[in-house]
Specification:
single chain; alpha+beta; Nuclear Transport Factor 2, Chain: A; 5-stranded antiparallel sheet; 5 strands; 35% helix
Length: 155
């Protein structure tokens, strides 16, 4: 099963500028539901190891992306594990996802996504707050059974 460290390593992978531009162009045309489906659809695949080439600015709104990046840099400098030490999309270090369901309520430039699934047989619900940016939909917070992503970076 995927590990926390693998998910963190994936966070550090950086695609080429051309690939990033292609992704940005594609993302700006997505609905909030399509944005979330793009994130979550691969998880039930047994071979999926987490979001490849996971750039925080590809998924998160600028303020949250900066907080995640700053923490990762500081943790690396100290030789420690960053605050985000698992996969925030499934609230776990390891996963075996089944019964994935995604619903979205949009209200202008904001939306709320509810993602439910079973992880290793345990029912889980994740709520994602989204905002429309010039680059497309981005996550402003993730609320999961273990807490919220925004609170993690306020500590």
């Amino acid at each position: 099963m995927p590990s926390r460290r693998w998910a963190l390593a994936a966070l550090c992978a950086v695609p080429t500028a051309a690939a990033a531009q292609t992704t940005a162009t594609r993302d700006s045309k997505l609905t909030p539901e399509a944005f979330l489906r793009g994130i979550y659809t691969p998880y039930p695949n047994q071979d999926f190891k987490g979001q490849p080439f996971w750039q925080v600015d590809r998924f998160f709104a600028p303020d949250l992306a900066r907080a995640i990046e700053a923490d990762m840099r500081e943790a690396k400098r100290r030789g420690e594990v960053p605050k985000l030490d698992g996969d925030p999309f499934v609230d776990a270090q390891d996963w075996d996802i089944a019964k994935l369901a995604i619903s979205v309520k949009a209200d202008g430039p904001k939306a709320t996504g509810l993602v439910s699934f079973e992880n290793q047989g345990k029912p889980t619900e994740i709520t994602l707050d989204l905002v429309r940016t010039g680059m497309g939909w981005r996550i402003t917070d993730i609320k999961s059974p273990s807490g919220t992503l925004s609170e993690l970076y306020k500590k």
